Structures are given as structure tokens and as C-alpha cells.
Amino acid sequence: MTVSWNKESYDKVKQYNLYVLVGGHEMFLGGIYDENYYIKNVKEAIAEAAANYIKSVSVSPKGTVATAGDTLDFHALVDGYHEDAGQVTLVIKAVSADGTESKGTTATYNYGETMKNVKVDNAADGQLVLTWEGGAADVTVTPPMERKPAPGSPPARTAAP
Fold it and tell me: What are phi and psi of 44, to 5 degrees?
């Protein structure tokens, strides 16, 4: 998996740290000052089942007193995320010159919705039959370049003008 982002100048950002969320916890993958990062294996980070992870809940106004049967107006801010089966959730954080990390931005990718079991059948009639399971795809078939004669074979004949 390759992740990319818009890189800030080195005066503002010294490094980007990349994390994967596993069971609601950040697992450090690595840090780099570049605009992309290659992740060799995210298999352990793919969610096996759908889940909700809640970090905190803030309720306002604070200190409200109520008795049974009272109706209250309040606001609640929930900090957390939902993860579907097959999903990987990544967090990228910018690191400043003093080593402070930004809050982070999350991105998700769901391997459960991707193409798999891709097969190409080169039928005898010259047609290609392409099949796969899951996911949508844009397919472009490009014919091969003009073939060069095999070494030692006679040159191709051309018609005289």
C-alpha cells in the first residue's frame, strides 16, 4: 500500500509520522519527510469485524442538576471512529521543528471492497475475457506494439509502390 499527501516546506514540517489504528490504538509505522510512504504489509491492521472505537465524550453544559423526569438540553461531542470489516485506518501527523506532532488526519481503505481473484482468459478467437470478484474497475486494453521479427527470421515483406 502506498500513501501520499501534500508535503509542506521543511521550515514548517520536519517529518510526517504515519500510524495505523489497531483496536482503537495507534501503532507507529514510520516517519519520513516526503510526500509518500510505502507500507509493505498492513495485514495485521485490517479489521476482522465492524467496530466502534470511542476515545472520549464531552458533554455541555457542565454541572447541570436534574431530577428524575426532567428534560435537559445538552450537547455531546464524541471523539472516536467507526471501522468496517476489511478496513484499514491510517493516521498521518506532521512533526514540527520542536518535535510536536499535529492532531493528525485519518484516511481509510477497505480491502473488503477491492477486486480479487482477477483472471484473464486469452480465448482461441483472439478475445480477452477478464473476470474478477468484488469492486468496480476501469479496464483499458492496449494492443501490443508492432512486433519485431525474431532474430534470424527473414524480414517482413512489403508491397512495392
Answer: -70, -20
How confident is the model at residue 61, as a pLDDT? 76
Residue 42 is predicted with a pLDDT of 74
* SS3 assignment, position 43: helix
User: What are the distances in angstroms from CA 152 to CA 115, 148, 149, 155?
Assistant: 43, 11, 8, 9
* Three cell numbers, residue 7: 508535503
Partners of 67 in beta bridges: none
Local structure of residue 148 (DSSP, 8 states) = P
At 140 the pLDDT is: 75
| Residue of 144, 138, 101 whose CA lies nearest to 122 | 144
Asked whether 13 and 32 are in contact (CB, 8 A), the reply is: no
Per-run averaged pLDDT (10 residues), the chain, 161 residues: 91 94 83 91 66 72 76 73 77 94 88 79 75 77 66 60 50
pTM > 0.70: no
- 108 bridge partner residues: 89
Please choose, from the candidates 19, 92, 80, 82, the residue with its C-alpha nearest in 3D space to the C-alpha of residue 55.
80
Residue 99 Cα distances to 14, 17, 94, 106, angstroms? 8, 11, 9, 20
CA distance 87 to 48: 8
